[in-house]
Write a structure and sequence with these properties.
219 residues, alpha/beta, 7-stranded mixed beta sheet, 7 strands, 16% strand, globular, disordered N terminus
Length: 219
Protein backbone atom coordinates (compact mmCIF):
# COMPACT_ATOMS: atom_id res chain seq x y z
CA UNK A 1 0.00 0.00 0.00
CA UNK A 2 3.02 2.29 0.03
CA UNK A 3 2.33 3.38 -3.55
CA UNK A 4 -1.12 4.73 -2.73
CA UNK A 5 -1.20 8.44 -1.96
CA UNK A 6 -3.99 10.36 -0.28
CA UNK A 7 -7.42 10.53 -1.87
CA UNK A 8 -6.82 13.88 -3.54
CA UNK A 9 -3.76 12.51 -5.36
CA UNK A 10 -4.96 8.99 -6.12
CA UNK A 11 -2.54 6.29 -7.18
CA UNK A 12 1.10 6.89 -7.89
CA UNK A 13 2.27 6.47 -11.48
CA UNK A 14 4.22 3.36 -10.46
CA UNK A 15 1.18 1.65 -8.94
CA UNK A 16 -1.03 2.58 -11.85
CA UNK A 17 1.40 1.35 -14.47
CA UNK A 18 2.23 -1.83 -12.57
CA UNK A 19 -1.45 -2.77 -12.58
CA UNK A 20 -1.62 -2.34 -16.37
CA UNK A 21 1.57 -4.34 -16.86
CA UNK A 22 0.09 -7.19 -14.82
CA UNK A 23 -2.94 -7.20 -17.10
CA UNK A 24 -1.30 -6.61 -20.48
CA UNK A 25 2.35 -7.75 -20.09
CA UNK A 26 5.16 -5.21 -20.27
CA UNK A 27 5.67 -5.27 -24.08
CA UNK A 28 1.99 -4.54 -24.76
CA UNK A 29 1.89 -1.92 -22.02
CA UNK A 30 4.94 -0.11 -23.40
CA UNK A 31 3.56 -0.07 -26.94
CA UNK A 32 0.25 1.39 -25.83
CA UNK A 33 1.82 3.84 -23.41
CA UNK A 34 3.96 5.24 -26.21
CA UNK A 35 1.15 5.30 -28.78
CA UNK A 36 -1.46 7.88 -29.70
CA UNK A 37 -4.87 8.04 -31.34
CA UNK A 38 -7.37 10.74 -32.26
CA UNK A 39 -11.12 10.61 -31.75
CA UNK A 40 -13.20 12.75 -34.11
CA UNK A 41 -16.45 13.45 -32.29
CA UNK A 42 -17.13 13.07 -28.57
CA UNK A 43 -20.71 11.80 -28.57
CA UNK A 44 -22.06 8.28 -28.20
CA UNK A 45 -19.32 6.64 -30.22
CA UNK A 46 -16.46 9.00 -29.43
CA UNK A 47 -16.88 9.22 -25.67
CA UNK A 48 -17.05 5.42 -25.40
CA UNK A 49 -14.07 4.94 -27.72
CA UNK A 50 -11.97 7.38 -25.73
CA UNK A 51 -12.84 5.79 -22.39
CA UNK A 52 -11.89 2.32 -23.64
CA UNK A 53 -8.59 3.54 -25.08
CA UNK A 54 -7.77 5.38 -21.85
CA UNK A 55 -8.55 2.29 -19.77
CA UNK A 56 -6.33 0.20 -22.02
CA UNK A 57 -3.41 2.54 -21.39
CA UNK A 58 -3.03 4.44 -24.66
CA UNK A 59 -0.67 7.22 -23.67
CA UNK A 60 -1.93 10.14 -25.76
CA UNK A 61 -5.42 10.94 -27.00
CA UNK A 62 -6.74 13.81 -29.07
CA UNK A 63 -10.45 14.60 -28.67
CA UNK A 64 -12.09 16.84 -31.26
CA UNK A 65 -15.66 18.18 -30.99
CA UNK A 66 -17.43 21.55 -31.01
CA UNK A 67 -20.64 20.63 -29.17
CA UNK A 68 -21.81 20.89 -25.57
CA UNK A 69 -23.23 18.12 -23.38
CA UNK A 70 -27.05 18.05 -23.40
CA UNK A 71 -29.49 16.13 -21.24
CA UNK A 72 -30.47 14.05 -24.28
CA UNK A 73 -26.89 12.77 -24.51
CA UNK A 74 -26.97 11.03 -21.14
CA UNK A 75 -28.80 7.91 -22.36
CA UNK A 76 -25.77 6.66 -24.31
CA UNK A 77 -22.75 8.92 -23.84
CA UNK A 78 -20.16 8.77 -21.06
CA UNK A 79 -21.20 12.03 -19.43
CA UNK A 80 -22.92 12.76 -16.12
CA UNK A 81 -25.56 15.30 -15.13
CA UNK A 82 -22.84 17.58 -13.76
CA UNK A 83 -21.39 17.86 -17.28
CA UNK A 84 -24.55 19.24 -18.90
CA UNK A 85 -23.71 22.56 -20.53
CA UNK A 86 -19.96 21.91 -20.67
CA UNK A 87 -18.10 21.52 -23.92
CA UNK A 88 -17.82 17.80 -24.61
CA UNK A 89 -14.08 18.12 -25.08
CA UNK A 90 -13.67 19.57 -21.58
CA UNK A 91 -16.04 17.09 -19.95
CA UNK A 92 -14.48 14.08 -21.64
CA UNK A 93 -10.95 15.22 -20.79
CA UNK A 94 -12.04 15.40 -17.14
CA UNK A 95 -13.46 11.87 -17.30
CA UNK A 96 -10.37 10.45 -19.00
CA UNK A 97 -8.06 11.97 -16.41
CA UNK A 98 -10.22 10.50 -13.65
CA UNK A 99 -9.74 7.10 -15.28
CA UNK A 100 -6.05 7.52 -16.03
CA UNK A 101 -4.38 10.50 -14.35
CA UNK A 102 -1.18 9.91 -16.33
CA UNK A 103 -2.68 10.00 -19.81
CA UNK A 104 -1.92 12.93 -22.10
CA UNK A 105 -5.26 14.34 -23.28
CA UNK A 106 -5.33 17.00 -25.96
CA UNK A 107 -8.56 18.69 -27.03
CA UNK A 108 -9.65 20.84 -29.94
CA UNK A 109 -13.06 22.46 -29.54
CA UNK A 110 -13.71 23.12 -33.20
CA UNK A 111 -15.92 21.97 -36.06
CA UNK A 112 -13.98 19.74 -38.46
CA UNK A 113 -14.29 20.68 -42.13
CA UNK A 114 -12.77 19.45 -45.33
CA UNK A 115 -10.45 22.44 -45.26
CA UNK A 116 -9.05 21.94 -41.74
CA UNK A 117 -9.23 18.14 -41.31
CA UNK A 118 -5.65 17.51 -42.40
CA UNK A 119 -4.26 20.11 -40.00
CA UNK A 120 -6.47 19.02 -37.09
CA UNK A 121 -5.39 15.36 -37.24
CA UNK A 122 -1.83 15.83 -38.49
CA UNK A 123 0.59 13.53 -36.69
CA UNK A 124 -1.95 10.88 -35.69
CA UNK A 125 -1.69 7.55 -37.48
CA UNK A 126 -5.01 6.34 -36.02
CA UNK A 127 -8.20 8.40 -36.27
CA UNK A 128 -11.47 7.02 -34.92
CA UNK A 129 -14.32 8.69 -36.80
CA UNK A 130 -17.31 9.21 -34.50
CA UNK A 131 -19.48 11.85 -36.14
CA UNK A 132 -23.28 11.74 -36.21
CA UNK A 133 -24.10 12.56 -39.80
CA UNK A 134 -23.26 10.40 -42.82
CA UNK A 135 -22.10 13.39 -44.85
CA UNK A 136 -19.66 14.43 -42.12
CA UNK A 137 -18.35 10.89 -41.85
CA UNK A 138 -17.74 10.76 -45.60
CA UNK A 139 -16.12 14.20 -45.57
CA UNK A 140 -13.60 13.24 -42.88
CA UNK A 141 -12.79 9.86 -44.40
CA UNK A 142 -12.21 11.34 -47.84
CA UNK A 143 -10.21 14.28 -46.53
CA UNK A 144 -7.85 12.10 -44.50
CA UNK A 145 -7.44 9.40 -47.14
CA UNK A 146 -6.43 12.07 -49.65
CA UNK A 147 -4.25 14.25 -47.45
CA UNK A 148 -2.73 11.95 -44.81
CA UNK A 149 -1.14 8.93 -46.53
CA UNK A 150 -0.08 7.26 -43.28
CA UNK A 151 -3.37 7.69 -41.42
CA UNK A 152 -5.64 4.73 -40.76
CA UNK A 153 -9.31 5.54 -40.17
CA UNK A 154 -11.79 3.52 -38.15
CA UNK A 155 -15.36 4.62 -38.81
CA UNK A 156 -18.71 3.72 -37.24
CA UNK A 157 -21.82 3.07 -39.33
CA UNK A 158 -25.05 1.46 -38.15
CA UNK A 159 -25.68 1.00 -34.43
CA UNK A 160 -29.18 2.34 -33.76
CA UNK A 161 -31.99 0.63 -31.88
CA UNK A 162 -31.96 -2.61 -29.93
CA UNK A 163 -31.35 -5.17 -32.66
CA UNK A 164 -28.99 -8.03 -31.96
CA UNK A 165 -25.53 -6.88 -30.98
CA UNK A 166 -24.19 -9.77 -33.05
CA UNK A 167 -24.97 -7.89 -36.25
CA UNK A 168 -22.29 -5.31 -35.44
CA UNK A 169 -19.03 -6.25 -37.14
CA UNK A 170 -15.65 -4.78 -38.03
CA UNK A 171 -14.80 -4.77 -41.73
CA UNK A 172 -11.59 -3.82 -43.47
CA UNK A 173 -12.50 -1.79 -46.56
CA UNK A 174 -8.89 -0.98 -47.50
CA UNK A 175 -5.60 -1.22 -45.64
CA UNK A 176 -6.31 2.29 -44.35
CA UNK A 177 -10.06 2.20 -43.74
CA UNK A 178 -12.06 0.05 -41.32
CA UNK A 179 -15.80 0.33 -40.74
CA UNK A 180 -17.58 -0.92 -37.61
CA UNK A 181 -21.33 -1.40 -37.22
CA UNK A 182 -24.15 -3.22 -38.95
CA UNK A 183 -23.98 -0.86 -41.91
CA UNK A 184 -27.75 -0.34 -42.15
CA UNK A 185 -29.50 0.73 -38.95
CA UNK A 186 -29.92 4.48 -38.63
CA UNK A 187 -31.45 6.59 -35.92
CA UNK A 188 -35.12 7.32 -36.65
CA UNK A 189 -38.46 7.54 -34.89
CA UNK A 190 -39.03 4.37 -32.82
CA UNK A 191 -35.43 3.35 -33.56
CA UNK A 192 -33.30 5.70 -31.50
CA UNK A 193 -29.73 5.44 -30.35
CA UNK A 194 -29.41 3.38 -27.18
CA UNK A 195 -26.44 2.78 -24.91
CA UNK A 196 -25.83 -0.97 -25.47
CA UNK A 197 -25.51 -1.07 -29.27
CA UNK A 198 -23.76 2.29 -29.44
CA UNK A 199 -21.21 1.05 -26.91
CA UNK A 200 -20.78 -2.26 -28.77
CA UNK A 201 -19.98 -0.39 -31.99
CA UNK A 202 -17.70 2.06 -30.19
CA UNK A 203 -15.78 -0.78 -28.62
CA UNK A 204 -15.38 -2.47 -31.99
CA UNK A 205 -13.72 0.77 -33.07
CA UNK A 206 -11.59 0.96 -29.93
CA UNK A 207 -10.58 -2.68 -30.25
CA UNK A 208 -9.53 -2.21 -33.88
CA UNK A 209 -7.56 0.87 -32.85
CA UNK A 210 -5.72 -1.18 -30.22
CA UNK A 211 -5.02 -3.94 -32.75
CA UNK A 212 -3.54 -1.45 -35.21
CA UNK A 213 -1.44 0.18 -32.48
CA UNK A 214 -0.12 -3.26 -31.57
CA UNK A 215 0.72 -4.15 -35.17
CA UNK A 216 -2.30 -6.26 -36.06
CA UNK A 217 -4.09 -5.29 -39.27
CA UNK A 218 -6.74 -8.00 -39.68
CA UNK A 219 -10.26 -7.54 -38.29
Amino acid sequence: MADIKNKSCGLSREAFERALIERHTKPVFEKLKNSSAAVAGAGGLGSNIAVSLARAGVGRLLIVDFDRVEISNLNRQQYFVKHVGMYKTDALAEILRDINPYIKVETKTIRVTQDNAAAVFCGFDIVCEAFDRAENKAMLINALLLSQPKTKIISGSGMAGYLSANTIKTRMITKRLYICGDGVSDSAEHNGLMAPRVAVCANHQANMALRLLLGETEC
